[in-house]
Every structure is written in structure tokens, then in C-alpha cells.
Amino acid sequence: MKKTIFYTIIGMIAIAAICLSFLLNFRPHTPQLEDYRFHSDLDSNTGSLNVQFIGNTNILITDGKTSILTDGFFTRPSIRNVLWGEIEPDLDVIDYCLKKAGIHQLDAVIPVHSHFDHAMDSPIVAMKTGAKLIGSESTANIGKGLNFPEDKMIIVDSDETIQIGSMKVTLIKGKHWPYPDKELRNKLLDREITQPIIPPVSALEYLEGSSYTIIVEHENASMAIHGSAGFIPNILADNNVDILFLGIAGLETMDDLYNDCFQTHIVEALNPEVIIPIHWDDFFVPLKKGLKSRSLLEKLIQGMDVKKSFEFVEMRNPERTMAVLPLWKLVNVLELLEKVTL
Ligand SMILES: [Zn+2]
């Protein structure tokens, strides 16, 4: 009898493990990821302006002389550690990703806001590449906890433009995507990190700080990186750009009215020729395994549905072109603009 109970329990645990593994690894098909995939005809970058997508909202912008990187989030801690454990930057993973991306030197690392999936690794990446760390007081406190030199931190005011080499960079304070979960919203949004964070710590220690739309102006092109799918009405209208890197995570969980306002106050306000969706990949998957869209588990728990978030953007932008950038590859901005706007 005891034996039967023992084997029943073992069997139930095995079935639960198989189900969990299926939910974590099955990813609903997102045809847009292939349909909009950008293919370059160039063998290598030409020395003019290039961009590289490195997952989540990591965007490298470089013209060979000046290089800036948003976020630099490479560690991608496990879902178990994010939900129930503690997290910290993984130096080996950061080294691997910098090498794979061909990044040796940077002028600035700029997190889009201070949640762990954007800013946790930023000070380490800035230290390894000799870059300045630019952002809010909250980002500075993540830097202080990692002994980032204070004279290399720049805490910016919203709308302040900084000249970084050949690029003009302006951070415009906006709003984060409002988590549907009220508890998470109250805990993580509209709150500053007021003390240095010394990891390992809970993921919940990484409070939002300020969420920015980052505008980068270069003689070859202008771009905006909008990391989180939130908006403040009417604050971006004077900032038309050629390319918009658009954080789409969470759009699919919002209603039609929210999406309508988001399109009006972010996409139409910035009026880009090209939209490059970002923040669509599952950041619990290590980058060395490539980019994967959200798992079925995230769909069931949080309503994450990459296909639906693409559709919201497609619906309101039939005249604009969308492009999905490949991982680890420098893409020539002029080629991108020419090819996709033909
Ligand atoms: Zn966030």
C-alpha cells in the first residue's frame, strides 16, 4: 500500500514537471517575426551609422567613432530566481555577450528605466567598456551598489540634450506600461531606488525610477528607443524620427482604447518611417540560445501574446514599415531606411 502511494506521488511529480517544461518551452507561432525579418545585402558594416539589436531593449548605435548602448541587460536570470530567489549580474555571461556583439568600447550606456531586465547589468557593462552611465537617480543607485565611479555617472533631467561624440541624446521622461496586476504595479512602478543596490537581491528591489523615450540624433538619421509600452499624452509631438525602436511588451494585455492612445501619443507623435519592434523576446532564455518569443506559460499567467502585440501595431500603421532585426548583427541604418521604404 505504502509502495503504491509512493509511486503515485512520484508519477504525479513527473507529470507536473513535464507539463511545466511544455508550458515553458512551447511558444505560440508569431509569423511577423519571419515576415518582417530584415536581411542585409552588405557583408559588413560600411563605417557609417549602424545599429545592432541584442534582445529585450538592448540597442547598440555606432558610427565607428561614437557608440552608445541602451540597457546592456545580458544576464537573463532564471524565472525561478526572478520569482522566488535573488538575482545578480553574471560577469561571464556579460563578457560572452559583449564579445559576441563585437563591443569593446562604448561612450554611454543608457537604461530605458531601472527594472532589473533593463538596468541590472548596465553599470558593469559601462565599467567594462569605459562608458558613462546615463539615467535617473535610481539607475545611479544601481551603479553605486556595484562601485561604479560616480564621476562617470550622468543623472539627467527630462528633455535635457547631451552631446555624446557625434550623437545628440535626449531622454524624455514618460510612463511605464501599467502592469495589469495591481500588487506588482504598486510595488514596481512610479517608485525610485533610494539606496545603493548591492546584489544578489530580489528582482523586486529594482524599482522603475524614470521610464524614458531616448531620442538619438545623428547626421545620418534620427532614432527613438521607447522601451516600455506606456505613454504620457502630447509630450513627444516635437520629436519626429526616422526609426522608432518600439517596446511592445504588454500591449496585448491592454484594451483597444489604451492601444489607440498609445499609437497616437507614441508612434504617430514620433512619426517614424520604420518601426522596429523590441522587447518581444522571452528574456528568461539565455542570449546564447538565440531569441525566442514568449512562452505559453507567460501567455497563461500574464496574457503575453507576441502575435497580438504585433497586430496592434500593424493595425494602426499600414503606411509605415516594420522590421525585425537579427540578433548579434550590425545593420547599416542607411541600407535599412532605403530597403524598407522602397
Ligand atoms: Zn520595466
Structure description:
With 342 residues, this protein is α/β, with parallel strands linked by helices. The protein has a single domain, classed as 4-Layer Sandwich (Metallo-beta-lactamase, Chain A). Helices cover 33% and strands 17% of the residues. It contains 12 helices and 14 strands. The strands form 2 sheets. The chain has a 7-stranded mixed sheet. Helix 9 links the parallel strand 11 and strand 12 (274-278). The longest helix has 24 residues, at 2-25. The model has no long low-confidence stretch (mean pLDDT 93). The structure holds zinc ion. The site of zinc ion (ZN) has 4 residues, from loops.
Summarize the structure.
This protein has 12 helices and 14 strands. It is of the alpha/beta class. α7 (137-145) links the parallel β5 and β6 (153-155).
